[in-house]
Write a structure and sequence with these properties.
By secondary structure, the chain is of the alpha/beta class. The protein is about 35% helix and about 15% strand. Bound molecules: 2'-deoxy-thymidine-beta-L-rhamnose.
């Protein structure tokens, strides 16, 4: 099938990161994707194989499928092919010129010929996700009045749309991890925003040099790390290495090779789960405080032991008190059991294909 996927980059890298993973997973299953992006610049490091040009176009061929990245305002004409599915990522709304084109070119009387129109929502473990998944949202105004848009919610339970999980994420690596010796904390990756507890973390015994090394991802987290270092006495300096921006596949490999991963936002959280190593999540902070209940719901689903819960709350600035030391065997066991629960569920792209087939 031909899919139009729409992505507006609000801030950070998660919007594009998720849309690229989704496109690549679909393309690897033989589908053709037009990925419309208002700022695709991060693809130069996230997916260098796509060879983005200065105008915001990129192409990537898979064995049978293919992705074409298009600038948000790219023109359409009479000869443009209509797709079978439209996906608005994170409620970004379709570009006006696309809506106008679609109203003239996909307006068959037979509703069966209308593209299936989906809004792919943000990931959350909160209860509303199961209630809202697959709900219709009738279009009441504009050139596409009368059509229906469907909510598609990713999530952590069977009653949600699931998580993006490519076929190479098998159960085998989790099994191998389970049989491995008691894990030692030697390397931690750090991808975060600006956690207040960062300098306190750098001083924990768990992370003391020389047996431990930080691998610090580029961007906001790296700046926060530099800032935190200014509060550390010379004789307690941690060992660290700064990393350049790497591709998504290299990023995934990094998570698999570390003993503990500090991740953030949405996509790297999912990747930390697939890596099957202990992790700490820095949730995207929202001004209205909505991230508090969202984090609690996730920790509940994760069945996080008390010290892991406490570390998360403190890392996210949601509780006073001291950061606990790392309990790697306990935390890794918790992540592996969560991963095993997820592996038993249907992945997001398979569910998406099923849903589209039902609606066509
Ligand atoms: O960048 P983020 O903080 O994105 C966030 C979240 O998506 C959040 O939900 C959203 O509301 C906000 O953006 C606007 O974190 P996230 O989601 O982990 O996205 C980072 C992406 O960058 C992910 O796909 C992994 C990728 N990445 C690389 O490919 N290479 C790298 O070197 C690094 C550090 C990240």
């Amino acid at each position: 099938m031909l899919w139009d996927i729409f992505c507006r980059v609000i801030d950070n890298h998660g919007d594009l990161g998720v849309c690229w993973r989704l496109s690549a997973d679909l393309a690897s299953r033989g589908h053709h994707i037009r990925l419309w992006v208002d700022d695709a610049s991060a693809l130069t490091w996230m997916a260098p194989q796509a060879q983005l040009n200065d105008q915001g176009w990129a192409q990537l061929r898979f064995e049978t499928g293919h992705i074409e990245v298009r600038p948000w305002m790219a023109a359409l004409n009479e000869a443009s092919v209509a797709s079978e599915v439209w996906i608005e990522a994170f409620g970004c709304e379709l570009p006006a010129h696309f809506v106008n084109w679609a109203a003239h070119n996909t307006n068959s009387e037979d509703k069966k010929n209308h593209p299936v129109w989906l809004n792919l929502e943000y990931l959350s473990a909160e209860n509303y996700v199961e209630r809202s998944h697959k709900l219709p949202s009738p279009i009441m105004a504009g050139p596409l009045k009368g059509r229906t848009k469907w909510f598609f919610y990713p999530g952590f339970t069977e009653k949600t749309g699931g998580l993006i999980r490519e076929s190479h994420q098998s159960g085998a690596s989790a099994a191998a991890l389970t049989q491995a010796a008691i894990p030692q904390l030697q390397r931690s990756s750090l991808f975060c925003y600006e956690p207040e507890a960062l300098s306190e973390a750098l001083l924990l015994k768990s992370f003391a040099a020389p047996q431990h090394q930080w691998l610090v991802a580029h961007g906001r987290g790296a700046k926060a790390f530099d800032q935190a270092l200014t509060h550390i006495p010379q004789n307690a300096m941690p060992l660290f290495q700064k990393l350049p921006p790497v591709s998504q596949s290299e990023f995934d490999r990094l998570l698999a090779q570390c003993d503990l991963n500090f991740v953030r936002g949405e996509d790297s959280l999912v990747r930390a789960l697939w890596a099957g190593k202990a992790f700490i999540w820095h949730i995207y902070p929202q001004e209205d405080g909505a991230h508090g209940p969202k984090l609690e719901a996730f920790l509940e689903w994760l069945q996080a032991p008390q010290c892991l819960r406490l570390f998360h709350l403190k890392w996210n600035g949601l509780t006073p008190g001291a950061l606990p030391e790392v309990d790697l065997p306990l935390w890794q066991a918790c992540v592996q059991s969560a991963r095993a629960r997820l592996m038993a569920q249907i992945d997001l792209v398979s569910q998406l294909l099923q849903f589209v087939a039902e609606k066509r």
